[in-house]
Amino acid sequence: LTFHDSSEGFPVASAAGTDVVFTMLRAGELYRKRADGSGQETLLAQGHILSASDWSADGHYLIGQRLGETNEFNLWYARVEEKLQPTPYLVTPANENGPRFSPDGRFVAYSSDESGQYEVYVKPFPGGEGKWQVSTQGGRQPHWSRSSGELFFLQGADLMVAGVSTKPGFSFTPPRR
Fold it and tell me: Which of 135, 130, 128 is nearest to 113 (CA)?
């Protein structure tokens, strides 16, 4: 899909599968290209190590991580337009990464090392009260089931799952292997 002298990574496909967003690693620039390979890529945003992690199911938002001023990774989001305007979603002294939208777009699951080890958390999107720690003994790379009924994540080499509900608010059951 890409043919540059630079390395590219962090591809994220649109829900419809028609477009892919990726990062040109050396420059930290975010690009969009048609998934069928036709046409040229479009520069969406430039940033300090800016990468996308997920595209909302409705196609309106991208979310990802960006290297902060003190070398921690923070989360950003943006409306998908010709030029993105990344907006801070979560900025802390900890490292946050791997954000994923719930299928209904009302919540984001992500990993953070704020407790001293990476755990999986969920917060409302784009804002609002509440934050829930879903994992209990470490967790990374969260992924929602298509129905929003389960949240999967890695705990070391184990695949874990927690039952979740996003209506009327967020709730979950203890994770199990």
Answer: 135
